[in-house]
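Interim report, section 4.2 (structural modelling).
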Amino acid sequence: RKEVEQDPGPFNVPEGATVAFNCTYSNSASQSFFWYRQDCRKEPKLLMSVYSSGNEDGRFTAQLNRASQYISLLIRDSKLSDSATYLCVVNPRYSGAGSYQLTFGKGTKLSVIP
Amino acid sequence: DVKVTQSSRYLVKRTGEKVFLECVQDMDHENMFWYRQDPGLGLRLIYFSYDVKMKEKGDIPEGYSVSREKKERFSLILESASTNQTSMYLCASSYSDRPNYGYTFGSGTRLTVV
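Predicted structure of the assembly:
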């Protein structure tokens, strides 16, 4: 099983639609979870952290299910500007010396269509 | 805002050249990382550093080396560039003791080796 797995898409949705992405991770000891957004030919940027109780930021809702080892991102009322690739990111391992590393999924591409 | 600055957005180099990619961060982050990103392969970790003069190999270190002489600067060196090193290179940095903050990325260097 890959460390972090996502459906690559693409998801093509009309403006105003609700779209959900799921992601699974393999290491049950993982501690931190994130969604990053990456626009075409740009760097990934942190969209939101994912907390155990679930969290919301405007139109975006992130959920974590530790028992099933999956993370979800829900986007409501999609805008054209939401078109991007969404990366699921997990902190699965501790590299020692007070450090940590993140593992990135390959991303799910979203295209919002007028 | 944390800034991670990569010295070049675009570079074209010849096969066999020695190539230096520079990355500077201004937030006193302990950790710094170099990734490459290729279509369909996602982000792949080349090297990382959790302290000055410390470095650890990532998943694909072959053909690369790194240098971290100062806390704010992390350099990636392609000893003898080859065409299969044509890629987008992304630098990132993070705190060592705040895993919930995630990484901050530079804007990337698109390297073409001809």
